[in-house]
Amino acid sequence: PLGVLACLSLGFETIAHFPQLALLPGLLDLFLWLGPRLSLAPLVRPLMSGWPAPDPSLAPVYQTLRVLLEELATDFNGFVLLNPGPLLGVPELMGQRMTLARPMGPRPDLPINSWAMLLGWTVFLIICGLGLNALYLQPIGRRVIEMTESPLPGPTTWPRIWGQLVQFMAGLMIALAIMSIPALLILGLISTLNMVLGSFFTMLALALVMYTAVQFIFTVPGMLQLRQPLHKALQDSILLVRVDFAGTMGLLLAVLVISQGLNFVWALPEPDSWTMLVGIGGHALVSTALTAALLVFYQERLAYLRLIQEAYATQRAPSQVTDI
Fold first, then answer.
1. CA 185 – CA 208 distance, rounded (Å)
2. Which helix (H) or strand (E) element contains residue 111?
3. Measured between alpha carbons, how far is 16 from 4 in angstroms, rounded to an integer?
4. Which of 14, 64, 137, 315 could form a disulfide with 292 if both were Cys (CB 3.0 to 4.6 A apart)?
5. Tens digit of pLDDT for each residue in 34-63?
6. How far apart are CA 35 and CA 29, in angstroms?
7. Which DSSP state fits 275?
């Protein structure tokens, strides 16, 4: 199969031929930059004012929490939930900057005044974000099929992709809730007995979560390019990662280095200047190219896996005849 660099090259070649694929990430960033802010200040500030006096030994922890809550109250924009997560949301740059500045002056706030309202907005924005991602991934999947001349069926209709993404996200949240509750209780108990041991097991749990997340990286490409149901896409994703774990980690490392390195460049313009448009456009193009590269990488490993399975079946057939 093609190596990581070849897949990245083909991904950038795809966006060079079809730059309109980057339109949706650009529009989302423009909304997060110039549009209103969904503010958590009415919920966060009462929490800060109601805190008791901290114990002197825990003062640094309280100070860190206060800084985080202050950032949530003053800078956080709830509309970033339109990007639920990697491969589940349209790439965005402005949501990571946590800034309210824009060329036209202060932006209006849409306050969230209750926890029930927060829950409603969260569910609504995540579902809408998954719909945007289905709208974003469908044409990319089709163009990758064209560029690679692959025999795969390619993406199905936008509503069906949206439904599969909602199903995938719901499954992830349920699994996370089931596993996190006992894990947090165990880690809390260990931490009360020994802080060093608790820190070690916390790092171990995070490493296990990251390893598990890598196993599912090809789930969305499987649903997109092969039109697979969720359970089959999960199975193939785990199998593909195990077949080429080194290549998968190499791709993820390359994507991380390219995206985070260039994000630093895209974020150099001041958010209150129209030159920020350059950063938004560059981020949209590069992020879309990396998404296309991931689909190319998936298709290459899928073809390689099919060849291995066919070779195994061919070798096994004569041995069965001999045994008979």
1. 17
2. strand 109-111
3. 18
4. 14
5. 999 999 888 888 877 766 656 666 667 677
6. 9
7. T
